Amino acid sequence: MDRKEKILKVLALLKKEFKGLKTEPGKSDPLDVLIATMLSQNTTDKTSYKAFVNLKERFKDWYEVMEAPYTKVRDAIKVCGLANPKARNIQRMLKELKKEHGKLSLNHIKKMGNDEIYEELTKYNGVGVKTVSCVLVFSLARDVFPVDTHVHRVSNRLSLAHSKTPEKTFEQLKDIVPEGNKLALHTLLIRFGRKICRAKNPLCNKCPLYDLCEFEEKEYYAGINKEIGVEPKENNFIILEHV
Ligand code: SF4
Questions:
Q1: How do the pLDDT tens digits run along the chain, 243 residues long?
Q2: Alpha-helix runs per DSSP H in 122-217
Q3: Which atom number of ligand 1 is nearest to the Cα of residue 196?
Q4: Which CATH code of 1.10.220.110, 3.40.50.1820, 1.10.4200.10, 1.10.340.30 fits the domain covering 30-138?
Q5: N or C: which terminus of the chain has fewer CB atoms within 10 Å of its end residue's CB?
Q6: Contacts 24+ apart (CB under 8 A), 45-48
Q7: How far is the CA of 207 from the centre of ligand 1 (A)?
Q8: May I ask the CATH class of domain 3-22+145-232?
């Protein structure tokens, strides 16, 4: 089985595991998605969503966030951790955007190609390839494959990729995931990574992908978790489906 065939098999099995869950390509405002994704770095989607809602409720618009004292922005988002660098990066990005384009809007990227958008947005501090990929998928409905920590871990355990960083996993998979399947695979791998293929103590005994997996310790984890009887917990909340 080549990697493309394996990806399609993984997709089919995960769709069965997470029956009924659908992810539609987003049409949210690109600046909202960019800021929500910046907030979501190194934290859970639930806490970063709280921080995003705080910003929306405490400030009239992104202009007010840009002009507010830094401490007010930091306090509004402290629930999601790393509030100091996140507040600084968001305010700096807003100021640079306003200076360059005269307004706080990312509508100008809608006409750009994907490569141009990666170049345009990664120039801001705190905005990496994954963040831009999320804007492309969840705002512009482009067929790209964001790789976060869950997607990176699961892809490597399944030997879909062989890399040490999400950035390299993205490079290895971006042209291999069959067209039209990237958003579905992204969200399913996140849900699967949270529920079963967890970073610590994966529930290999409950895994629908067990036969496809090449993780060396899968037998060990299947054994101990069967013995202890750990049950998987659902966590289907993905911030960018709610922005
Ligand atoms: S067998 Fe274990 S490590 Fe492999 S994909 Fe399933 S949960 Fe993850």
A1: 899 999 999 999 999 999 977 777 778 899 999 999 999 998 998 999 999 999 999 999 999 999 999 999 999 999 999 999 999 999 999 999 999 999 999 999 999 999 999 999 999 999 999 999 999 999 999 999 999 999 999 999 999 999 999 999 999 999 999 999 999 999 999 999 999 999 999 999 999 999 999 999 999 999 999 998 888 888 778 888 888
A2: 129-138, 149-157, 166-173, 182-195
A3: 7
A4: 1.10.340.30
A5: N
A6: 45/237, 45/238, 45/239, 46/237, 46/239, 47/79, 47/80, 47/81, 48/80, 48/239
A7: 6
A8: mainly alpha
How far apart are the CA of 156 and the centre of ligand 1, in A? 10
| Residue that is written with structure tokens 């306090």 in the block | 75
184 CA distance to ligand 1 centroid (A)? 19
Ligand 1: residue of 149, 207, 224 to mutate (most ligand atoms within 8 A of CB) is 207
Residue among 10, 150, 221, 230 whose CB has most ligand 1 atoms within 8 A, to mutate: 221
ipTM of this complex prediction, to 2 decimal places: 0.99
Mutate to test the pocket of ligand 1, among 195, 218, 224 (most ligand atoms within 8 A of CB): 218
Q: What's the sign of the alpha-carbon dihedral 209, 197, 153, 87?
A: positive
